Amino acid sequence: MPVQWKGYMSKIKSYQGEILNKQLAQKIFNEKLKAAKMNKENVAKQDWSGLNAILDKLIETLSNL
What we know:
Layout: E1 3-9, E2 14-19, H1 22-38, H2 41-45, H3 49-63
Antiparallel strand pairs: 1-2
């Protein structure tokens, strides 16, 4: 999904991004989640690497606080 970079956040010296079609991203994610919940075997066939990377970074960041 394309991201539009918006306001600069001086505290963290970085720009804030926003997914351009957030509703579509949510719809796709909810369909993927529903398929995974309906049949656990679907999880092995799906790509969850993006979500895993986000969670890993979140855990790493919180561990260093």
